[in-house]
Design brief:
Length: 279
């Protein structure tokens, strides 16, 4: 009986390995054709999908057609907003997700700069760490941090959305550590933040409400007012007032067919960035 069970287990393991190989072959060919460049896409034993390309690799939960060019374009357009991040700059990426934006920030600030990639959800953080490890020769300046940032220090629950992009603090879910923004700065001895990027699914106001932003030079925040009918997501006006009161100037509000782009907020202290958004 034991020998039979062992044989069945070996067959199952062999079949799973064959299935992963077949899926990897299909995904790699499909996405290579779509992007017109060689790509290797495969699922690891822990369930994460590795998307390996010529100049970067990222991990995700499902096969992903996003190219390295797409990743850089979206990060620059959505979060940098025309700001010039110089070598040696410090970026704090709050809501780092699976790490694709952090890869772009890492390249922009160079080996003398620092990127703090802050992600609260444990499973998404696992993917973030995997992305960083897969690019270790390029990402030695990235510090991953498994933490939620809000208005208090302690513990909270985080719900798992249909996508990692919709994970959010809630009354039920997985337990996560919580800290304030300033306590985080102090813990990691961050005296200056050249870019603070915030994309945390409606939790931007609790994060910013009592935060001291005097160490921050430039700030990019995604507000989620485009999600109708959810009161806690309506943060744009409060966040805008907070950023102005903290001494930032703002880029004109962007008009865009994509509704969430309209609620991106860019604040800067030094010379205004080169990008001219339309009113």
């Amino acid at each position: 009986m034991a020998e039979r069970s062992s044989r069945i287990a070996r067959i199952k393991t062999s079949n799973l390995a064959l299935l992963r190989l077949l899926c990897a072959t299909y995904w790699s060919i499909k996405f290579s054709v779509m992007s017109r460049s060689v790509r290797l896409v495969y699922r690891r034993k822990d369930g994460l999908v590795v998307n390996r390309q010529a100049n970067l690799t990222f991990c995700s939960f499902e096969p992903n057609s996003t190219t390295a060019t797409d990743i850089e374009r979206l990060a620059l357009d959505n979060w940098v907003g025309g700001l010039e991040l110089e070598r040696g700059a410090v970026v704090v990426d709050v809501g780092a997700g699976i790490g694709e934006d952090a890869l772009v920030f890492s390249r922009l600030v160079g080996t003398s700069g620092k990127v703090f990639a802050v992600e609260a959800h444990p499973r998404t953080y696992q993917c973030l760490e995997a992305t960083i490890r897969c690019n270790r020769n390029l990402t030695r300046n990235i510090t991953p941090v498994n933490l939620a940032l809000s208005s208090y220090c302690g513990l909270a629950k985080m719900a798992s959305g249909e996508s990692y992009l919709s994970n959010a603090l809630a009354s039920e879910g997985v337990a996560v550590r919580v800290s304030t923004l300033n306590a985080f700065f102090d813990q990691y001895q961050i005296s200056r933040v050249d870019l603070l990027k915030v994309n945390i699914e409606g939790a931007e106001w609790p994060l910013l409400e009592q935060a001291d932003l005097s160490r921050v030079v430039n700030i990019s925040i995604s507000c989620h007012d485009f999600i109708d009918g959810v009161e806690e997501m309506q943060t744009y006006d409060r966040v805008r007032a907070k950023v102005l009161a903290a001494g930032f100037s703002l880029l004109p509000r962007r008009q865009h067919a994509n509704p969430w782009i309209k609620f991106l907020l860019y604040g800067y202290r030094a010379n205004p960035p080169s990008l001219n958004h339309e009113n």
